[in-house]
From TrEMBL:
The lineage of its organism: Bacteria, Bacillati, Actinomycetota, Actinomycetes, Streptosporangiales. Residues 43-204 form the Peptidase M48 domain. Belongs to the peptidase M48 family. Residues 10-21 have a biased composition (Low complexity). It comes from Streptosporangium longisporum. Its cofactor is Zn(2+). Binds 1 zinc ion per subunit. This is Peptidase M48 domain-containing protein. Keywords: Hydrolase, Metal-binding, Metalloprotease, Protease, Zinc. Coiled coil: none annotated. InterPro entries: Mito/Outer_Membr_Metalloprot (IPR051156), Peptidase_M48 (IPR001915).
Length: 212
């Protein structure tokens, strides 16, 4: 099945009570886009993504670009929570490539390219330095990306509240539905991963919600 692409521009229509329908999804997206002060949101519903979601864009494009897994349309609460989370990423500038995480990712790629060049030039000293830089930059980029997830969770609650919904309840339910990571990832894998564990996200969100 091909992805369904819909361009959604904020209007004065309140959020629909049934966002699993095309009209309801458009109204929900419009309400969240207004709350995020996004001029427009391009939503792609992709069956291949299942229940995942992505926010992507560039600093040259002010519109939010969101890809939603088609499976999310079957769960009203998760759809609201996930869509708000991805729009929050855009509102916070995470998808425009201008964050600390993006900067460290660029350093990592420079380190990798330098490492390859040093290997070709048979310079073991430069190869060792470049490898250390690449690994260090990757770890720092991953740490910043995990922080971005915490920030998007917290900001999505604000966007949902501004859209007239119960942000705390929706985000709590969305995080509760996240599948558990493998034991290896929970023990140490998260250090090199771009996403914190679901338990870590739930703890961070609870702490943020209690502080407000």
């Amino acid at each position: 099945m091909d992805p369904q692409i819909t361009r959604l521009v904020p209007t004065s229509t309140p959020a629909a009570t049934t966002p699993t329908t095309p009209a309801g999804l458009a109204e929900l997206t419009g309400a969240l886009a207004r709350a995020a002060h996004a001029p427009a949101v391009l939503v792609v519903v992709d069956p291949a993504l299942e229940d995942g979601a992505l926010a992507h864009g560039s600093h040259c494009d002010p519109d939010a670009h969101i890809t939603l897994g088609a499976d999310l349309l079957a769960d009203q609460t998760r759809l609201r929570g996930v869509l708000a989370h991805e729009i929050a990423h855009h509102a916070l500038g995470h998808s425009q490539g201008l964050t600390q995480a993006s900067w460290w990712q660029n350093v990592c790629w420079i380190g990798i390219c330098t490492f390859v060049a040093a290997i070709v030039a048979d310079s073991s000293a430069w190869a060792d330095v470049a490898l250390v830089v690449a690994i260090g930059a990757h770890l720092l980029a991953a740490r910043e990306q995990r922080r971005e997830e915490y920030q998007a969770d917290a900001h999505s609650m604000q966007l949902l509240n501004a859209a007239g919904l119960d942000g705390h309840a929706i985000v709590t339910a969305t995080l509760a539905a996240l599948p558990q990571e493998s034991r290896l990832y929970r023990l140490a894998g998260w250090i090199i991963g771009s996403h914190p564990t679901p338990d870590a996200r739930r703890r961070a969100f609870l702490a943020t919600a209690q502080a407000r």
